[in-house]
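hey
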């Protein structure tokens, strides 16, 4: 009975995972998504719009574009002129609330838009809330556009962060923009707090982005398993060993901090 209790406890502890930013598993229906920045001047952010665009580009490159099992590619967009509502309006008309009634005045027509914003209720009236993200343009399970608002109120905590901390914060918000929710484990970029100190993705982050944007497998030539001249048990063991070896190599790569790249196809 004691063993059974321990096993159940361990199974419970291991059932964590990524979550999604909506209840329908929505994602962009294209592999290249641009990150644009609103061109208006930010009052209290301490950086220019062009610097904000560069930080966002770096966030995509350093975090999400390195997952070789994900097909998503985040690209530097442009500075774009948008309505004043993006600078001063509410992202959700019912904010603050756990669910969001999308403000139609702030709907993003396509891709990801980052805008500094001074409406305090977007940030729960707190300077320590760095940003809020709402995918706010959907067609069924497809995200057409997503909005990231950065807290531009006086005494906001974003302006005091170091450069890499700002990159990590933007990478977290971009994760929400492409469809991810929070992870329950603090080793992940998508954990709900202390994200500024993250330097790499965690396993929940990798699993989540791979789930939403899987790399398609080739249809011919690859993926066949040759069992000739092997008993069924030996063949199965080889397959399992190969799978474990592949997993071990993948984990070593990530722990060493190396960039992941798509391996050459030998089939
Ligand atoms: Zn978050």
């Amino acid at each position: 009975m004691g063993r059974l209790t321990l096993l159940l406890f361990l199974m419970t502890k291991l059932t964590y995972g990524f979550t999604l930013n909506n209840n329908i598993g929505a994602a962009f229906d294209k592999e290249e998504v641009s990150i644009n920045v609103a061109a208006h001047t930010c009052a209290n952010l301490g950086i220019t719009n062009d610097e904000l665009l560069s930080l966002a580009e770096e966030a995509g490159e350093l975090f999400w574009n390195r997952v070789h099992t994900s097909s998503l590619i985040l690209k530097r967009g442009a500075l774009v002129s948008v309505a004043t509502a993006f600078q001063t309006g509410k992202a959700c008309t019912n904010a603050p609330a756990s669910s969001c009634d999308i403000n139609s005045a702030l709907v993003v027509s396509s891709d990801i838009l980052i805008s500094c914003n001074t409406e305090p209720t977007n940030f729960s009236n707190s300077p320590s809330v760095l940003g809020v993200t709402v995918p706010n343009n959907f067609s069924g399970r497809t995200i057409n556009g997503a909005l990231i608002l950065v807290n531009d109120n006086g005494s906001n905590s974003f302006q005091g962060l170091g450069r890499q901390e700002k990159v990590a914060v933007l990478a977290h918000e971009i994760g929400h923009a492409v469809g991810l929710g929070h992870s329950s484990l603090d080793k992940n970029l998508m954990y709900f707090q202390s994200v500024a100190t993250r330097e790499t993705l965690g396993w929940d982050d990798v699993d989540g982005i791979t789930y939403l944007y899987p790399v398609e497998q080739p249809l011919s030539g690859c993926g066949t398993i040759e069992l000739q001249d092997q008993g069924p048990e030996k063949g199965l063991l080889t397959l399992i060993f190969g799978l474990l070896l592949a997993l071990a190599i993948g984990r070593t790569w990530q722990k060493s901090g190396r960039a992941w790249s798509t391996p050459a196809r030998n089939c």
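The first helix runs from residue 2 to 13. The pocket of zinc ion is lined by residues 172, 176, 182, 192 (CB under 6 Å).
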